[in-house]
């Protein structure tokens, strides 16, 4: 009996020992598994946090390194830039300091919000032709050479461009040797003496020519003032059905500061309680169809104003603002597209930013003439 009890006790002890050892082993295995799992998660978090600066470095340096793909799978040699397109990261907004999307979901184009290589590829595939309209009338002819030379260097590089030059002095148009796939069309217009007449007829002529000619020759129209210089890249990122450019003078201001037309008897009237942005006349555009609609509407409104003996406070710009308030643009160019340094210093907001995209720059001499 005593022997039986002793055997039973021994068996029980042995079982408990086994159970304890099993539990110990299980805890050890769980701890190891947990450690590896946590480590993986931490690594993922670290990658997420360090990711953007890597991307920025790659973009900043613009390095194109030849990698032997043999290291990866076969012996093909490809460019790293082709492999590593700037991958969008849902958790990292491209710009944290400014609005990049309007409430009607139109992108606002700022430096660092787009990858020009992807866009170039898309627009080249569509065989896009862009028309650039400009008016060089009377004394404004002096700006045309710089306008064209800078456009040759920085406007829509790599794409087909037609320059449409409206002028009262066709013989004074500088004869430049244009890049391949670019042509210049000189269109003679009347010599209007008043700025208001020039601006009114600018709208009229663009709309007339859109229907008669541009519709058959180009896909997009960009309408620019002649006293601007393309001092940096202006490419297909600006193209959309209808686009306007934010006036740098009203950057960050509320609508009460916008110089809209507030007199109700003008066709450009905008009530004090309305307004999204203040757009500048110096740079707008879109598809030929949309530019036709815009310029036709503005011209008709200006004609009604003229018949009623009223001139909107900023002429065609007031009408453009009214149009874009009620026909929301599908893309908006940030004031980076039309900035001049004195204004930058004045606002102090973007002063320290890398001046990479200040493509179109207003030439102050225009106002001195
Ligand atoms: C001025 C500009 C004018 C007009 C005005 C609107 O800075 O020279 O052309 O845009 O702002 O308030």
Unreliable stretches covering 5 or more consecutive residues: 37-83, 347-359, 361-369
Percent in strands: 15-25%
Written as H for each helix and E for each strand, in order along the chain, the element string is HEEHEHEHEEHEEEEHHEHEH
Q: What is the name of the CATH topology of the domain at 115-368?
A: Spore Coat Polysaccharide Biosynthesis Protein SpsA, Chain A
Terminal CA distance? 124 Å
> What bound compounds does this protein have?
beta-D-galactopyranose
Q: Please give the order of strands in the largest beta sheet.
A: 3-11-9-10-7-4-5-6
Our Rg estimate from Cα atoms comes to: 31 Å
Describe the main β-sheet briefly: 8 strands, mixed
Brief write-up:
With 369 residues, this protein is of the alpha/beta class. It is built from 9 helices and 12 strands.
Topology:
Blueprint: H1 2-61, E1 66-68, E2 77-79, H2 80-83, E3 108-109, H3 116-125, E4 129-136, H4 144-154, E5 160-167, E6 182-188, H5 195-217, E7 220-224, E8 228-230, E9 242-246, E10 279-287, H6 288-307, H7 315-326, E11 331-333, H8 341-347, E12 360-362, H9 365-368
Parallel strand pairs: 3-11, 4-5, 4-7, 5-6, 9-11
Antiparallel strand pairs: 1-2, 7-10, 8-12, 9-10
Helix pairs in contact: 5-6, 6-7
The site of beta-D-galactopyranose (GAL) has 6 residues, from loops.
